[in-house]
Each structure stands twice: as structure tokens, then as C-alpha cells.
Automatic annotation (TrEMBL):
Region (Disordered): 1028-1068
Annotated InterPro entries: CTLH_C (IPR006595), Haem_d1_sf (IPR011048), LisH (IPR006594), Quinoprotein_ADH-like_sf (IPR011047), Topless_fam (IPR027728), Topless_Znf (IPR048419), TPL_SMU1_LisH-like (IPR054532), TPR1-like_2nd (IPR054080)
Keyword annotations from UniProtKB, A to Z: Repeat, WD repeat
Source organism per UniProt: Miscanthus lutarioriparius
Pfam assignment, any one: TPR1-like_2nd
Record field: compositional bias (Polar residues): 1055-1068
Record domain CTLH: where: 34-92
Xref: PANTHER family: TOPLESS-RELATED PROTEIN 1-RELATED, TOPLESS-RELATED PROTEIN 3
WD repeats: 441-476, 588-619, 856-897
GO biological process, one term: regulation of DNA-templated transcription
Name used for this protein in its record: CTLH domain-containing protein
Amino acid sequence: MSSLSRELVFLILQFLDEEKFKETVHKLEQESGFFFNMKYFEEKVHAGEWDEVEKYLSGFTKVDDNRYSMKIFFEIRKQKYLEALDRHDRAKAVDILVKDLKVFSTFNEELYKEITQLLTLENFRENEQLSKYGDTKSARSIMLVELKKLIEANPLFREKLVFPTLKASRLRTLINQSLNWQHQLCKNPRPNPDIKTLFTDHTCTPPNGARASPVSVPLAAVPKAGAAYPPLTAHTPFQPPPPGPSLAGWMVNAAASSSVQSAAVAAASIPVPPNQAVSMLKRPTITDYQSAESEQLMKRLRPGGHGVDEATYPAPIPQPAWSVDDLPRTVACSLSHGSNVTSMDFHPTRHTLLLVGSANGEFTLYEIGLRETLLSKPFKIRDINACSPQFQNAVAKDPSISINQVTWSPDGELIGVAFTKHLIHLHAYQPPNETTTVLEIEAHSGGVNDIAFSRPNKQLCVVTCGDDKLIKVWDMHGQKLFTFEGHEAPVYSICPHHKESIQFIFSTSLDGKIKAWLYDNMGSRVDYDAPGKWCTTMLYSADGTRLFSCGTSKEGDSYLVEWNESEGSIKRTYSGFRKKSAGVAGVVQFDTAQNHILAAGEDNQIKFWDVDNNNMLICTDAEGGLPVSGAPVVASISPNIGRMDHLDRNSPAKPSPILNGGDTASRSIDIKPRISEEKPDKAKPWELMEVLNPQQCRVATMPETPDQTRKVVRLLYTNSGVGLLALGSNAIQRLWKWSRNEQNPSGKATASVVPHHWQPNSGLVMTNDTADTNPEEAVPCIALSKNDSYVMSACGGKVSLFNMMTFKVMTTFMPPPPASTFLAFHPQDNNIIAIGMEDSTIHIYNVRVDEVKTRLKGHQKRITGLAFSTNLGVLVSSGADAQLCVWTNDTWEKKRTVSIQMPAGKTPSGDTRVQFSSDQSHLLVVHETQLAIYDASKMERIYQWIPQDTLSASISHASYSCNSQLVFAAFTDGNIGVFDAENLRLRCRIAPSVINSNPPVHPLVVAAHPHEPNQFAVGLSDGSVKVLEPSESEGKWGTPAPADNGIPNGKMPASSATSNPAADQIQR
């Protein structure tokens, strides 16, 4: 069966499971043999349905396939036999003995005789080996543990235990796309085509031969995630595709006029007001078409000329030009506010008016241009008696109330304020310095976490969300129009928006869920997980065509992403954030400007991105204004970005709704009518962090083992982050694991706790085949499967595949000559392995069929590195000839060859290694003479660093950190350098004395922890392995070097990274 046919089976399995055809699902699993459902297998074993257990197994293996299969069937039939004896059903026991267990007598006759003798005992527990047999339930559980181990170790179940990752309802999406395409090809497309069958291609026939008039693309809502779909034969009208390249994109090109811009995604039909619907973050589905009753019309965008009744499109509105020079680089002024700032918002038209909310409940309005305080309004309850007893009790216990959010209405005439306890206030603004409270609403039970204005049906409304897990919509008289229920955690933020006349609201909650709502009572239309799964805010670009979200996880990881609204997937992830300490980290805030710029506050810096580029443009030092340990407040960016100003503050941003009690430390404020401009302190000069002894960081040394090697030649963390695997020059692999305990609650690798050397009970050691060669002279190689179940390695002999649980050799392949020198699993199929060879070729090997599919030739010397990129669809290889080759990973054609540029006087030879960044847009190239960063799409070098000054020795090895923000590099003189990955500037030097007091000993290999950006391990030339992390007080390896790389004593730092003055030679 072809790979596409195999994938189709998986799509059908997913469809059957979603439609609750449970028996059919498992029947197809068994008949196809593509996916072994361990959960279903466990259920049947616990239930003792032995016939079904064996029938299901038969789709994957037979008794005599191998020793694992034989053991599996033997354990099942033995358990069935013992249960019959325990019930004293001797007739059934004899039947099982003769029909089921007899087959094993040819392999072990003595065991069969012993089993037979159990029939003579009144209680089979009289047999010494079965004396500990408990009841049936416990015996099945114990057996199941053994069966799972056997199944996982059985090669016949390889890659069959994990279902591929698919978007929900993927088969429906593909069918929907097909129908979209068929309708696009119709000569006479009808506005609401009637889809009655999938058995034939769709065509439209105009009634009475009339010419079909063009109509607008329908905007439909999306069903709740997990909701059952109607049958495929449901009688539903059809939605045509929107214009542009996306089949179901809900945003058309900005060139289209507002009258025809649409936001269409296919979605399930729901009752909506005439001419109102909304597209949401959702993939298209076959039943996602509007009902015939809907009054939505469709405008069809067709190539070619326009008929008299067809829409025409004006030229796109030119966007204002901008450059990086427009971005603020220095603090223009600092304002002493007097209380912790929790929220800020610029006036929508008067761009120098800044509204500021405080932790003491007061909001203030500043005229930034004049450095004046226009007004300050303390918190005051208008009518405490009109409030609920719950609110009155809360205020009586703790009268302090903070502001969670301040915002301007779209016309700038109203100010909305959301408080940490129950209330919102609306104030009318009378320029220049007066406000009147027009409305006080007890909006939520608990904190009101966000407030925003919207215009459904052209009526100005207020939208709020709160700790009570609700979103509410209010009119300007304080009357509640809608209540949206569906979140299972406090609602953190809201984002009202509109497309044409279509009004909708996005909301996010503290469990990381994103939902979308129409202004009706039909419930949420989508249910997605936000990156980080905690505090997230969503925001559209100024022109309303692009959707972004920014948030932080509880672990301190920050995420800034752009969404593909047509598919409900992440389109782009912006890099440049640093991990904060868990439990201390605040929530990163962000904003957009001029449809081109994203800005976020983090680490005492304001960071800027071009919306079309994943990589950060620049950082602006906030001169201490943004706290590292709290959430920085980023004011909405003034549309006149050249005048964006910064307020001096020491506070976190919008308090986390989890800690919504308000600020108890500072309650008073003394604002003067005019604010004097404070001169910022002179910035502290940047200093290179130097770690000179083990006391300045955390270092853990792996315990010695009986098979200690002379040197560590390869080093890997397990993908789960709980273990460390080292391959020694003696061809033996050692494994250390961290345990979960009070000292280490996470159970992850850490330099604060020493792990234990792990071996299976059998005492086996993972020893590679050496083919009678000296392993010290061989080129070692190693690769680990994604699920940590298998490790593949070679040391001059055959490639060995080891089971990581048992250390047993599952198989060997590729005997020399030539010897294997580098191994890499294909990212999308663990059965495909790229193997670099001593003779300079690359073999694409299929483990399942034990066959080399193709041989790639392009290098002149042995292969020293291989790296796959799923995004780019390529394999990059590096060799001892200092060449890089780029191959397509489907047809395996060579796209180009790049020679790395060697420093003057250096010959183009030596091991070259390659590694893709986490976003797969950049390639790290490591050679003993240099570190280099390449633009992976063009294979053009961006930065190069050459050993110099205190790091002048040759580079032995280097690796990206897990988030690709850092590069850890080891040197032959024992030094370790930590570089900023974005520019290869040195930020920290770790001296040789930190890892060893014996000068000749130096690190040979570096491995970065898969989840902790500041943790890495080194394998040393004396055979020892060490894990390093910054001290808990530092938390990270130094700070980024300034752009000019200058340091106060006038010396040039060691990290004088260069850009690409002379492009590397590219050969087509």
C-alpha cells in the first residue's frame, strides 16, 4: 500500500472515531495493521475478553513471528488457563491446554508439562512459582504491564503505537476543499448551491438558463470544538472559496475594497441576524455551509474582465513608508507616577494623550508632549447600597481596589475602567482636563479582567470579562445585552472585532483556551489552545487584516504569534523572548503599529518585530522601567510611532487574574499638576559575564560507571529531558536519569541534583559493534528516536538499534566498508534514516524493509553532519571537506552546494557540523575555525564568529539552546562560550577551572537541554560528563552585548561577530 493510501486509512480512522463508530474503528485498526490502540487493548485485557484480545492482536502479529510475539500470546493464554483453574472449570482449562497452549510445547516441552501438572492440584497456588498469584483483577494488571513492555520492544509494533498528529476533522477539510475547487470551476456558479451528494462532481446549473449574478462570500460561524457533525449526506448549501491563494481564508487581500473584503471560513450553519455572521479560527468542514434561509449573498471574484453586474475593486490604499530608524531607541522622558502602573492606552486621535491606570484604583491622564498631568481621578463607589451584598462584604473585608484595565472608546469620548472587584466605570471625557462618571456597573463576580468597546448593530456597547468565567455585553444605559458562557476558567482578555458588518469577540481564559462569539446566545464558535496555555491577549493589526496573540506560560515561556485564521493554526512565531523563572514571571504585554510593527516589553527592554519577519528587529533599553520579575506594561503604540514615549514605572502590568487582590504595598499617590522631566541615570556599561569557578554557577558531575571511557565522543539529552546519554570512545553508551523527588519535583535534568546511572535489571550494557577495528580511531555517530524508545549508534562497525528500556540490540545494519559517520532520523518517518558515510556518500535507508533507497553524492570527504528541515523540505549535509550540500527530502535531488568561507591561512578541511534553529529558518554551522549563522532559505551567511582573545583556541563542538536564543560552544583549551544566537556576540565565558582543575582536560561535545534554555551538558576528554546551569540568583548566562560591542575599558570583546562582507561561494 502506498504511503498516501496508508495516510488515508488514518484519516478514516479519525473520522470513524469522531463519529463514534467505535467497533468499526477497532476493526479497521486490526485489519489494516497500521495503528495498535493500546488503550483499547488494555480495556479488553482488564475485561478478560480473551478472544477479542487475540483477534485484535492477530492484525499485527502471529504466535510464531518472533520471540516477543510468542511471549505475548503465551502470557495471554496462560492467564486464561489459570483463570479457568481458579474457577474450578477444569473442562475449560483442559480445552485451553489442548487448543491454545499445545503450540508452545514444541518450543519448551518441560514448561508445557509443568503447566499440565497444574490440573492435578486442588489449588494451583500450591505450585511454588504461582504461590504469589492474587485475585484475577490484580493478576491481569500485573500481566498487562509485562505485555506492554513486550509490545513496545517488538519490532513488528514499531511506529504503530502512536497515532499521527492530525487537525480535527481532517478528512472533512479535504472534502470541503475539493468541493470548493469544483464550485470554482463551475461555469454558472449559483449563490447558494445545493449539495446533495458526494458521489459525483459538483456542478451548478442556473435556473431557467439565467445568468448567475456575482454575490458576496458568505461569512459563517464555526461549530464548537468537539461537536458532532451532521451526516455527510446532509442537505446543505455550499460555500465558494474566497479570493486569494487560501481555499478557506477569511481575510482577502488588502487590495480589495471594504465593500467586498470578506472574512470567510467554512463553518456550520447557525441562526444569525440577517446579513450577520462571522468567520473564526477554524478549518473548513464539509457541513460548514450556510442554510438556505440565510440572507447572506455571495460576491464571486473571478479572473478576467468584469460584467456589468460584477463588483470592481479599487487600487490598494498605499501604506505609509517606515524604516527601522523610526523605532524609538532611547527614553524620551520619564514620568514619576507615584503608584504602580497596571494599564495604559493612548487616545485614538490625540496621540499625545496617555491614559494610565494604577494599582491604587486611580486613573490619570497625561499630555506627553507637554509633560503635564491633565487630570487624576481616584476610585470612588457611586452608590454602595446599589451593589450586591457579595461586593459589599468583599469591600468591607478589604477596601483596596486596583485597576485591571483602562481603555478609550473608538471616538475618544469615553474612558472605560475595569477594577479588580466586580465593578466597571465609564467616564465621559471633556477636553482638556475634565471627566464625568456616567455609568457604574457591577459587571462580574470577582475581578473584571478586561474591558473593551464594540459596535454591534452600529450601537456602541461595552464588553467585559471576569473571574466568574463569563463575558458580558452592556449598552450605554448599563443594561446587559448578552452573557457568553463556556469558559472553564477565569476569562483573562477579550478582543472585539468586525469584518464588514460582521461583529464578533475573541476571548482567552487562564486555562489557555481561545473562544470566539457572535452577538447571539448560541455559544462559542471555536475552542483552541493558546501557545503557553495561560495568560494570552489577542490583537488585530490596525487595518484589521492580521490577527496576533501574545502570552506567557506558567513556566515563564513567552509566545508572540500570528494566526492563520482560515485554519485556526499558528502562521508565524516570533523569536526573541527569554524564559523567566516559573512562579515569578509576569505576563508579557504587546501592541501593534502602522500594520508593520509589533512591540513587547520584557527583561527591562522593549522589543520590536517586523510583522513579516520571525526575528526581532531591535531592542530598546527601558533603563530599568520594565521589571524583570513582573509583567511589563507596554502602552498602546501611538500611530505616530516616532513619538512613542515611555513612562518610568516599577510595576508589573495588568495583574494576573489569579492574584487579583490588588496592590497592598502602595495605596497613596501624590500627583502634581505638572510633572518635571527626570533625567535617566547613565546606563550601566555592559560587562562580559565571566564564570571563573564552580561556585559562580551550578555544576553536576555524572556518577562514574564501571565501564568509564577515556573520552566522551557523543552526548544527547533524552527528548523528555529526564536523561542524558553519552557514547564513549570505547563504543559503550551510558545513560543517567534524574528521579522525581522532593529535591527535584519535576523529575527533569538539573544541575542542582546528581542523577543516577541507569541500567536494566538484566545488567546489559549498550555496546556497539566495532568490526574488529579500534573504536578510538572510528568516527562515532548516534541518533535518538522522538519517543526515546530507541537509540541508533555506530562506532566503526555496523549500525546498532538499541531498545532504551532493555538495552537489547533490536537489529544491526549497514556493515562496513564504508563505515557510518553520521545518523539522522527523518523528521516525518522514523523508519527513514539518513546515514552519512566514510566514503562521502549519504545513504537514505528504510529500516522497515532493510533497504537503501538511494545514495546521495556531492561531498569529497566523509560526512560529518546532517540536519533535516520540515518547513523547508530539505536535508542539509556537511562534510570534512568544509562543504554544505542542500538536498530535497522527497526526491533527494541536490539543490546547491555551499563552501564555507575559511579564515585566512586555514585549509578547507576538518569536521563541519550543522543544526537548524527551532523555527528552522536559520542554520548553525560549526567548524573548528568558526561559528556561522546562515539564512536557511537562501543558504547565505548572516554572521560569522572566529576564535579570538580569551577564546582563541579551536572550537571542539557547539549547539543551539532549546529555544535557539543561545549558542553553547566548547573550546579545546577547556573554555566554554555562551553566545547570543541572533548575532553571535559573546555574553558569557565559562573558564576551564569550572569543569575541571586538570588543564589538559577539555570538553569534546556539547548538548543542550530540550526544554531548559540555560541548561547544557558537556562530555569531557577524560570520560566525565557535567551538566551546567547559571546560579539561581543569576538565572541566565549574562546579558546581551550592546550593538556596538563596546566595553568600558576600551578592549574589543571576544565576540566580534561579523556580518557577511564576502558571501560564501555558492555552486549551483
